[in-house]
From TrEMBL:
Coiled coil location: none
Malectin-like domain residues: 40-362
UniProt keywords, alphabetically: Leucine-rich repeat, Membrane, Repeat, Signal, Transmembrane, Transmembrane helix
Record-given protein name: Malectin-like domain-containing protein
Membrane-crossing segments per the record: none
Species for this entry: Vicia faba
Gene Ontology CC annotation, any one: membrane
Membrane topology type: Single-pass membrane protein
The keyword Repeat is annotated on this UniProt entry: yes
Signal sequence annotation: 1-33
Length: 507
């Protein structure tokens, strides 16, 4: 049986779900300062404003891809351009943003196909955040309805001072090209979704609804630009509230506007709701439900009720005060269709009210690369004039999408075990901290145009194979190379280099 929820002034928990985003009206509000974070107009060359948020061109955050313009009327400005990726040899295509290590971020990706490639059906591909394969992007159904699509994930920046958001081909992509229309990376307050262990999990948005609203609630009512969708209420009664609710009283900072209306039913009747409105894969989910009594209640007239999910008690004898409350569970098992049931407590004549709800799927992280390895590889990339085009994001992860030439171990904290750039046509130098790749067994750089001196490699105690021939290295051969305990294969004379001193082959 699921573990019980708790009443608190807010919270959450976590893959592969699409939210529904309208594509039409140009929202003309006066421009306001963006919340802390990045709002990116992918493929654009100009700053554009949507719903009072300024989106800037993406050229400062990605080095690869081709831009395209969608010539269709009545599109949001962020949907009228996109960036797409044709290089089939690249393991992934990454945006990279300066962040604060340990902070939580809400990442949103937006897609509108617009037949940019002359086809009729959108391509299908993967998206990756911080080295974890986040979801498959399949916008076919939405695009057929004239809609764009968006995806969201809450994740901690754990890799260092940059956060990566990447696209990658999968077995369904074929010869088509992954693409992206807009991208948001927003820093979240510490209180948001804090029951989740973000060292192990991310949270993927499944649904977020303001049940009584007629329109989408987003920025500026929600400072993080989370979209609270209206709900298809059919014949479910809606009740309005005149009571002011303070958003900061809740951990998750829901916009106060979601408490201005809610759905209800007749007195002493049970409110039943099929929500979220999608069939869920078997997994654990973070569920947060928001309630508020529209009356100035007293102990003699409290609006109390029991909440259950799929027949399991979620919270009992809940008192929905006029200040508002949240009932949440950090990890609740769900599968298939979900029914929320709100039943008045015996003897209470007041009908139940439900204002809003959020559901996130708990996504186990795919691991991360050792920080010292990341720093060494980033420095190597900076030391090369034109590094491989997929050298961005996590060097090792996810598995199958490591950097070109990089092989890694399978641990949760991955280490780089081989670097093979033989005959890659690279021009550059080797940074001094290449020796920080202490798990490296094979360093194969032959047939390039590396120059400068060969740095101290004494820390590479696992190195078995070293090929540096046919480059432009010069200066004395560092004595550390001859002392490496496991080195058994090395180019004996560093041919076609200008290195003083010969190396011997270890046995």
């Amino acid at each position: 049986m699921p573990s019980g929820g708790a009443v608190a002034y807010d919270n959450m928990s976590p893959s592969v779900f699409i939210l529904w985003l309208v594509t039409v009206p140009l929202l003309l509000h006066p421009a306001l300062s963006n919340p802390l974070g990045y709002f990116i107009n992918c493929g654009g060359i100009n700053e554009v404003t949507v719903d009072s948020l300024k989106y800037i061109p993406d050229g400062s955050y990605i080095k690869v891809g081709t831009v395209a313009t969608i010539n269709k009327p009545d599109l949001l400005p962020t949907l009228s351009t996109l960036r797409y990726f044709t290089n089939t040899l690249s393991k992934k295509y990454c945006y990279s943003f300066p962040v604060i290590k340990g902070n939580k971020y809400l990442v949103k990706t937006v897609y509108y196909y617009g037949e940019f490639d002359g086809g009729k059906q959108p391509p299908v591909f993967d998206q990756i955040v911080e080295g974890t394969r986040w979801s498959i992007v399949n916008t076919t159904e939405d695009y057929a309805k004239g809609l764009s699509s968006y995806y969201e994930v809450v994740i901690e920046a754990s890799h260092g001072k940059r956060l990566s958001v990447c696209l990658a081909r999968n077995k369904h992509t074929g010869s088509s090209s992954p693409f992206i229309s807009a991208l948001e990376v927003k820093s979240l307050d510490n209180s948001l979704y804090n029951p989740t262990d973000f060292h192990k999990y991310a949270l993927v948005t499944v649904s977020r609804h303001s049940f009584g609203s007629e329109d989408i609630i987003s920025f500026p009512d929600d400072k993080f630009n989370r979209m609270w969708q209206p709900f298809n209420k059919d014949e479910i009664p809606v009740v309005a509230s005149q009571t002011n609710v303070t958003s900061t009283d809740f951990w998750n900072l829901p916009p106060a506007k979601v408490f201005m209306s809610g759905i209800t039913t007749s007195e002493e009747k049970t409110l039943k709701l099929e929500w979220p409105p999608v069939s869920l894969p078997s997994s654990y989910y973070y569920i947060s439900l928001y309630f508020q009594d529209d009356r100035k209640s007293s102990p003699s007239s409290w609006r109390t009720f029991d909440v259950s999910i799929n027949g399991h008690a979620f919270y009992s004898n809940l008192n929905a005060t006029n200040k508002g409350v949240t009932v949440y569970a950090a990890q609740w098992p769900l599968s298939g269709q979900t029914q929320i049931t709100v039943t008045p407590t015996g003897g209470i004549p007041y009908a139940p009210i439900l204002n809003a709800g959020e559901v996130y799927q708990v996504l186990p992280l795919g691991g991360r690369t050792q920080t010292r390895d990341i720093i060494a590889m980033e420095d190597l990339a900076k030391s090369i004039q034109a590094p491989p085009r997929d050298w961005n994001g996590d060097p090792c992860l996810p598995k199958g999408n490591s950097w070109t030439g990089v092989t890694c171990s399978d641990q949760f904290v991955a280490r780089i075990t081989s670097l093979n750039l033989t005959n890659a046509g690279l021009i550059g130098t080797l940074p001094p901290n290449i020796g920080n790749l202490t798990a490296l067994s094979h360093l194969l750089l032959a047939g390039n145009k590396f120059s400068g001196t060969i740095p101290d490699l004494s820390e590479l105690q696992e190195l078995e194979t070293l090929h540096l021939e046919n480059n432009n290295f010069e200066g004395p051969l560092h004595p550390s190379i001859k002392k490496l305990p496991k080195l058994h294969e090395i180019s004996s004379d560093f041919q076609n280099n200008k290195v003083d001193g010969k190396a011997t082959k270890h046995t």
